[in-house]
Amino acid sequence: MKGHLTTPLLFLTVLITLTSGNGQMFNKEISGKVTTDMRVVKVLRDADLSVLFDEGITNTHYIFQHTHDISRYGKGLKIGDNCILDFKKGGFVNGRIKCKNIVITGKKLKLSDVYIEIDNADYVSIKNINASYTFATNDFIKISNSKNIDIENVKVTFDKGNRQLPNGDWIYTEGFDLFNCRNVLFKNCTILNAKSRNVDSEHGSLMCKNSSDVTVDGCYSSGGYNEVFLFWYSSNVKIVNTVVNGGNGSGIALVGGANFTIDRCKSLNVGASGFSLNAKKIKVTNCLIKNWQAYGGITMGHSPEYARAADVEVSNCTIVNDSGKDHPDPIWAFGGVSEGEIYLHDCKIKAPRICTFDFV
Predict the structure, then answer these.
(1) β-pair partners for 109
(2) Of 309, 304, 303, whose CA–CA distance to 277 is shortest?
(3) Can you give the pTM of this predicted structure?
(4) Largest CA distance in the chain
């Protein structure tokens, strides 16, 4: 086996003590997770990762100093439970990794055309990554049926949009795709789509389906063809200090679910509504929506029963459309289909129309 192993140690506190190959001690704090019997593997430049990684190899702290091409491993690398991928230098290129309980971190970690799939995890920590794609064919990070997820300081750049299939269909992808997850922190992340206003980029930035207790804090997206930040039948969601600038969809979109807070966010130059709020119990404060291209600056509800809005409060927001562009359909500051109370106050508005609502 290529790679350097140390003697297994016992971990009793959050501050984990590890022994390097030369016997030198160093400390590492792993996101509050208490781990037992973890071994350390220093991954060599020419290591065979199919030997080092396997579902049956668990409780391992891998230390990387080099860049590894993982395309040679067929359908991808399967990482065992309760492992740490710690990149002092280097990264992964061209491939896929699948894992469960995992910590992925580094100082200047670079991933190129790499996809991460996580399922049924009790904790996930992904930090300090710079990822890029030439032609994205799947979601960058897809997490299902998991909890206690911490994604911080991650930058994703989609260089040339999606690959179109021979039959003309597009491959739909997201930057981050979460399904049935809870207790999620998505912080200080950036998603860039180089051709975000063209139909050859189907990327959204973050999609959460059937998820709860989600916080998006301090993030930026240059848009995409899909809705940019999309929450589908989710609950207890807080989106703060986040910016969308560009794209063909709505900046922030809610479909179903309840208990949403949107505070100090900006939606600029998007192709549809600034915010599309098709859910219940929503509070929007201190936001800027400017120069959306269709529908409402804030659209609250659509005609299908599952997508109607209720119990919405919008306050201290600025909603301006002064782009001077011709629009095929009328645009307005507020509007939609509501089956409950809509409360608007202390907003500054400059738009062709102020309000247009249907109540059911």
Answers:
(1) 129
(2) 309
(3) 0.85
(4) 72
Burial of 324 (0-12, 13-18, 19+ CB in 10 A): exposed
Decide if 125 contacts 106 (C-beta within 8 A).
no
Scored b (16 or more CB within 10 A) or e, 203-235 reads bbbbbbbbbbbbebbbbbbbbbbbbbbbbbbbb
Structure tokens belonging to residue 266: 């900006």
> Would you state the structure tokens that stand for residue 20, as one six-digit string?
């390097």
Mean pLDDT in consecutive groups of 10 residues from the start of the chain, 360 residues:
38 29 34 62 94 92 95 89 95 93 92 93 96 77 96 85 60 82 96 55 77 97 82 97 90 95 96 93 97 90 75 96 69 85 92 73
HSE value, Cβ hemisphere, 13 Å, CA-based, for 225: 14
243, exposed or middle or buried, with CB in 10 Å at 0-12, 13-18, 19+? middle
Residues 6+ apart with CB under 8 A from 37: 8, 9, 10, 11, 59
Separation CA 117–CA 103 (nearest Å): 13
Q: Quick one: three-class SS letters along 259-306?
A: EEEEECCEEECCCCCCEEEEEEEEEEECCEEECCCCCEEEECCCCCHH
Rounded to 5 degrees, φ, ψ at 128 are 60, 55
Bridge partners (DSSP) listed for residue 357: 336
CA distance 287 to 223: 17
